[in-house]
RNA sequence: GCCCCUGUAGCUCAGCUGGAUAGAGCAGCGGCCUUCUAAGCCGCAGGUCCCAGGUUCGAAUCCUGGCGGGGGCACCA
């Protein structure tokens, strides 16, 4: 999928000028791998490019000589926009853009507002993001909460980059675990202990109390009622997390009808000779598609496996017209990735049309001590416990701020802290401050959009930070990495704080004040968008409600 | 045994499809509230980027081999 930012934003135009200057300097070379980025610690200027280093070999010349020509070409193309282009180090070209370029660039960000960084994927894809999909036999716990935050934020990113996104929760309501749930609830309703291997948590007793006549109803009816209650509770909990699913897909529907979806899928794979019988069971030859062993579809007992349902389910998603399926799974399911991919292809899916994202674990810590995950069997920290404790904003931030590929140590003491020590409040505070300045300026009748004679370095740095956002969004979406947005937002909040410190708005000379107001408005909008992509609120004010810190 | 993730500052982590003197938050030390929110700001200190080879003008980043941590390898869901 490509989701390139607008071709006409200031950075894209800079890259275009660079590409032209590079092609002119080394006609035989390909400068497309060259970077244009903020310089590293050793460099000066606003942007640095390694184009000359990339092109030195095809040019057959020392990099610094190539760099000189590129610098000259850029100067010729950019005119007043370019303050200087210096060759440095082994052959970098360091660019310093003029204040005028920054002012013009900001006005583009400001006029895009919250749409800054929005993409138009080409082509737009119909994407099905399936996430959480926790078994309806118990509450959603912390791992599922991370999965929820990630899946939702990924969906937001994919939508913002121009795709048609569908959020889906798969309810495993057809397996033997559901029967066990029914038995456990029924036992509790009769005042008995759940059976061996049954569900032990307090919620089982709550279910028993909420299902009229549970003690005497048939187990399958109790089970059905219990699943319905658990699903409703999951829906409520997820809504508290600001997550709304488009579809709650029930596994049992795959077994309804004649032939059922599962039956049709088995028959189709059979027709293609991709299944075989052995030891009284029906197997899928997943080894033909990269799995390390073949897998059972139908047990010798005649019952299908969950795997058979999964295959039919993914087939169903394709049949509903999605171009791309993304499944977000917990770490404990990574062993199923190869077989699912193999089965997906065996059942006619295009390689690449199914992505399986594995979430690593969450460890809760409390001020350095490993928090107790389970006091006794059946008790664990749930989604509800977590957001009651630290709040939705902090929960989403801390679960999203790190790569899904890494295990999280979530410090509850830090996340609970409503103070400067907590990064999520820091970012929200930057947003609130921007709002506060704008509100005050509006009261005093100041207007945004001036052209000051010169800019402060903090203003320039903040403008460039905002200009990064479209690339950051595209990268985060393409790499399925929402944590990049959190990293960017923190850096942007820091840049805004520097600007706030160095550049008073109210009381500044009119053109200066007008420019700074525009910068505040743009920062407010882009920060709000970044927070929204994470599902974190962007408050307009954060008045302290107590002075004790 | 095989598979996946991971090893970067005291702690938690960014950076990883190669770029210059490796960053942030927290913790530590020292400063800053008659000024648009001190839920803030400034400064200091803090590193064999797990180890060893290799590729490259250039490696935290790529390759190979080790070592450590976590998770997973059902006719369970």
Structure description:
The chain is of the alpha/beta class and 549 residues long. Among the domains are: 10-97, 2-Layer Sandwich (Gyrase A, domain 2); 423-534, Isoleucyl-tRNA Synthetase, Domain 1 (Orthogonal Bundle). The protein is built from 18 helices and 15 strands. The chain has helices at residues 10-25, 51-59, 63-78, 99-112, 142-160, 176-189, 202-210, 219-240, 261-271, 306-319, 337-346, 383-390, 392-400, 412-416, 423-443, 457-478, 483-502, 510-534, and strands at 36-37, 47-49, 82-88, 92-97, 126-130, 164-171, 247-250, 275-278, 281-284, 295-298, 324-330, 354-359, 362-366, 369-370, 408-411. The structure holds one RNA strand of 77 nucleotides.
Would you spell out the secondary-structure blueprint of this structure?
Elements: H1 10-25, E1 36-37, E2 47-49, H2 51-59, H3 63-78, E3 82-88, E4 92-97, H4 99-112, E5 126-130, H5 142-160, E6 164-171, H6 176-189, H7 202-210, H8 219-240, E7 247-250, H9 261-271, E8 275-278, E9 281-284, E10 295-298, H10 306-319, E11 324-330, H11 337-346, E12 354-359, E13 362-366, E14 369-370, H12 383-390, H13 392-400, E15 408-411, H14 412-416, H15 423-443, H16 457-478, H17 483-502, H18 510-534
Parallel strand pairs: 5-6, 5-11, 6-7, 11-12, 13-15
Antiparallel strand pairs: 1-2, 2-4, 3-4, 8-9, 9-10, 13-14
The chain binds one RNA strand of 77 nucleotides through helix 2, helix 6, strand 9, strand 10 and strand 15.
